[in-house]
Amino acid sequence: MSWSFEAPLRDMRFVLGHVLDAPAAWAACPAHAELDLDTACAVLEQGARFAAEQLQPLNGPGDRQGCNLDADGRVRTPDGFADAYRAFVEAGWPALAGDPRWGGQGLPLLLDGFLREMLDACNHAWNMYPDLLHGAVHTLAAHAGDELQQRYLPRLVSGEWLAAMALTEPQAGSDLGLLRTRAEPQADGSVRVSGSKIFISGGEHDLSDNIVHLVLCRLPDAAPGTRGLSLALVPRLLPDGSRNAMVCDGLEKKMGLKASATCAMRYEQATGWLVGEPGRGLAAMFVMMNSARLHVALQGLGHAEMAAQNALRYALERRQSRLPGPRAADAGAADPIARHPAMRHVLLGLQAQVEAGRVIAARAALALDLAEHHPDPAVRDAAQARAALLTPLLKAQLTRLGFEGASAALQVFGGYGYVHEYGIEQSVRDARIAMIYEGTNEIQAIDLVQRKLLGDSGTALQALLAECAAEADACLAEPSLEAFGQALREECEAARSGLHALLGLRDPGLVLALAPDVMDALWWLLNTWAFAASARGTLRASDTDAAWREARLERMRYGVDWLLPRARQHWQRVIAGAPALPELRATR
Ligand SMILES: Cc1cc2nc3c(=O)[nH]c(=O)nc-3n(C[C@H](O)[C@H](O)[C@H](O)COP(=O)(O)OP(=O)(O)OC[C@H]3O[C@@H](n4cnc5c(N)ncnc54)[C@H](O)[C@@H]3O)c2cc1C
């Protein structure tokens, strides 16, 4: 039985129609007012077909072949990757959620998010190439001058040209304040960029003629640290068609994602142009990084979905050991492993978390759409704050789920999971990086606590808690959903006490020591909200068959009954006070 993909289109339609009521939100935004649920789902169906037919067959071969660097510094991607990208551009997928001003189709980011989940599920390495387009476009749209926008945005929106994000240097990883790449201003308004970057995804490849690098760098009189950083656009091809002075010195040999070119780049007085004000480069780069963080979260979700559905298919077929108790005459010598309680825990846990994760990710994408397009400024501001709060949670938690889910699925496959043939071991290897890049998951926890909770004195979290409390009340009003309402109400109360305790902490070291607990606690609050909102959605979903609704309800119940209790310890540490965290000593 080999690794295969069945797009979760039914679940996506359910989330759009019955959990988030996305059509009502679209109707409130003039840019999306014409969109209806059937049209949205028809777009997703086409996207699913592209992912399953064009990308999934390239996933295993791409992993085995990897990328190659020629003697002339050109990178060759695995066979079929460039053709698939050409088909992707011709079908208009890169422009799906692009601004119509620059040639985009102007559809919601919510649909774009579901599309990305499917692309990542089928071929994470391939999707690394177009994944940075959206962030680059947003950064240029928000910060670049008119001339740069006119020159680059239409061709990035269409996907004719691709983008790369060049931050990391050997001595500057999580701490970008340490980076050294220089930019010297020229009389004609351009800059000359010199320095070395490492780990640059898609810095060089054969999918597009031009690659637009957004490079973090320092001007000559820049202040030290992050305040002194500027952002430069450095294209592989200059406007006159000649090659810019930048070379790929090497490709990293990696644990996974072998078909994604991870490049060591050298800029030797390369021509570029500043994006945004000098010294404000990190603020501009954050536009790209925030978009990229949500996309990385969707990589995790794609891996987890793929793991859940392949593990289930295998577990229904594979028979080992007889279960105790009476047996049907035709039961055979052994039962499917899907019936053994230990495997049921793994599979139900994965399914419940994937479905809840999809709801939470979709809620964040909807918030981004509202932040961009809702006519009421107060709604736009609240939606922006909601998306900002959810971003580090989604990035860290869905990437963890992607890796742990793939590993759990490998366990379901037993020894067959460990051999190449079944595909699951590639998923474990590919999924692992998402916990590291785009700001490690430890950095996400710090961002969550310092910026998103303490930074606004808990205002964005209070707004989220109000929404969760309303969901709890709605469930409590429905007798069959009382357990969901009760669980969500308890989570809200714990979060209120936890936030109060957090805001009262005076020791910044203790705040950092508790950051992972706060991250986990809030993720379980969000999961409980997603379980409850999904359970209530199943009561409204008369357009789906009863067996499907009951199965989904059971998975949500499993989440509340079995998964949630394990998560309750996290607020306790924040509320009751944590023991001192010892310093590490070099001697043991
Ligand atoms: C396949 C791949 C693709 C990549 N693509 C890109 C790309 O396109 N563009 C780009 O610019 N970079 C890219 N990167 C680089 C990636 O973003 C960095 O690896 C990442 O930011 C971490 O930096 P580092 O590796 O130097 O680790 P370090 O920063 O040295 O961190 C090491 C460990 O220490 C922890 N740590 C560090 N600081 C703190 C702190 N303050 N508090 C708590 N813990 C901390 C980290 O969480 C981590 O666990 C890529 C990397 C890989 C492997």
Task: Explain what you see.
The protein is 58% helix and 10% strand. The chain has 588 residues and is an alpha+beta fold. Among the domains are: 133 residues, Acyl-CoA dehydrogenase/oxidase, N-terminal domain (Butyryl-Coa Dehydrogenase, subunit A, domain 1), CATH 1.10.540.10; 118 residues, Butyryl-CoA Dehydrogenase, subunit A, domain 2 (Beta Barrel), CATH 2.40.110; 139 residues. Strands 3, 4, 5, 6, 7, 8 and 9 form a seven-stranded mixed sheet that branches. Strands 1-2 form a two-stranded antiparallel sheet. A hairpin with a 5-residue loop joins strand 4 and strand 5. It is globular and about 85 Å long. The chain binds flavin-adenine dinucleotide.
Briefly characterize the structure.
The chain is α+β, with helices and mostly antiparallel strands.
Spell out the blueprint of helices and strands.
Blueprint: H1 9-19, H2 22-28, H3 37-65, E1 68-69, E2 75-76, H4 81-90, H5 109-131, H6 133-143, H7 146-157, E3 162-166, E4 182-185, E5 191-201, E6 211-218, E7 229-235, E8 246-251, E9 262-274, H8 281-317, H9 341-373, H10 377-413, H11 415-418, H12 424-432, H13 441-454, H14 459-476, H15 482-504, H16 508-540, H17 546-567, H18 569-576
Parallel strand pairs: 3-6
Antiparallel strand pairs: 1-2, 4-5, 5-9, 6-7, 7-9, 8-9
The structure holds flavin-adenine dinucleotide.
Query: How many beta-strand runs?
Result: 9
Q: Give the distinct bound molecules.
A: flavin-adenine dinucleotide
What separation lies between the terminal Cα atoms? 48 Å
**Unreliable residue stretches:** none
Mean pLDDT: 95
Number of DSSP helices? 18
Radius of gyration: 24 Å
Q: Strand pairing plus helix content: what structural class?
A: alpha+beta
